[in-house]
Amino acid sequence: xxxxxxxxxxxxxxxxxxxxxxxxxxxxxxxxxxxxxxxxxxxxxxxxxxxxxxxxxxxxxxxxxxxxxxxxxxxxxxxxxxxxxxxxxxxxxxxxxxxxxxxxxxxxxxxxxxxxxxxxxxxxxxxxxxxxxxxxxxxxxxxxxxxxxxxxxxxxxxxxxxxxxxxxxxxxxxxxxxxxxxxxxxxxxxxxxxxxxxxxxxxxxxxxxxxxxxxxxxxxxxxxxxxxxxxxxxxxxxxxxxxxxxxxxxxxxxxxxxxxxxxxxxxxxxxxxxxxxxxxxxxxxxxxxxxxxxxxxxxxxxxxxxxxxxxxxxxxxxxxxxxxxxxxxxxxxxxxxxxxxxxxxxxxxxxxxxxxxxxxxxxxxxxxxxxxxxxxxxxxxxxxxxxxxxxxxxxxxxxxxxxxxxxxxxxxxxxxxxxxxxxxxxxxxxxxxxxxxxxxxxxxxxxxxx
Length: 450
What we know:
Blueprint: E1 7-13, H1 29-33, H2 41-57, E2 62-65, H3 73-78, H4 85-95, H5 98-104, E3 115-118, E4 128-132, H6 139-142, H7 145-155, E5 162-164, E6 182-185, E7 194-199, H8 218-228, E8 233-237, H9 240-245, E9 254-257, E10 260-264, H10 270-281, E11 287-291, H11 298-304, E12 310-312, E13 322-327, H12 328-332, H13 334-345, E14 351-357, H14 360-363, E15 373-378, H15 380-385, H16 394-407, H17 420-437
Parallel strand pairs: 1-2, 4-5, 7-8, 10-11, 13-14
Antiparallel strand pairs: 1-15, 3-4, 6-7, 9-10, 12-13
């Protein structure tokens, strides 16, 4: 199937007021390294919004996904804490304070894990399909998918154009981490493409070979492809070496767009990768760009998040003139900077320029520029069907930045989560966000239903 006037729209997660360093994610080295440090939620959100502004200035269409309601007190209620909201927080702080970090986590900011997306050109019914990720490997993220589904239905609520599914069952065999392990490859955005699903484990995986969890499963990837009616899917397993080095998602060691797949030498087992690439070449003129370990070690790739850069076609969709939106840590890492400089001189590959962006608050918790966005390919008609409250221009970014400055703290520690006053501040911020976005009549958050 071919559609016309299609473009890729990035929907970034708006970083919420509860952004803190809880060290909750096993296998995420940055998260573990910075656990219990004091965060700056205001700076984090402003950095994220400035990244969105950068893309708008470069001519790209940009949207956002709102922060989820945090704390999620319904989880604490299920765990036996009862009473008014303030009492639940006080009781949890006294009896099980470690649970507060879980229910206050702002991890939904990493929208690449919100869902897997299949464009209409690739689906059997000609609609754009979304499946929220169940994220079952980590407790603080496993609680996200009910709200993710609600938010996606608010943003993409027109069923003529969009299909929002429920998450696949939260059973170990179906661990799903969303678009961070899915790459849509194509000749152009409007042409039928191929879904490359990367997984960390299947029924034959020797789990003793993994130091950290293989979060994405083959069974989950296959289930999502079935849900979406994906016309062409290819499956490829991560190398245990990459997972054990801290590549908890494929987007830590690989990034693709259009016909280009850029990956680290140790992202996949070599033979499996070549077989997958051969299959992909039957559907499109795949170009691969392998970053050799002699040039950039796996450790430097993960520390700098080179592969968690956004790989974009030019603003008009030209796949021969791509750019990277890279974290500033890539510029500061000498090996990575040298590789980028050499790549820009190599016109046998399509990356023509790089923009370095400061998202240090997110990076310190384990998420780079690509983690912060969900990619959605939309035709003009589909774009017109998106809830306009979630599409951005610079004026709306100014409005959201003013909202952040009114409500966010400039310092937040894990101990602050026990403060009932902080809970009131957060709820006031979310209530004001609903007003700012003009969504008072829409049930964006659970508290609007109570």
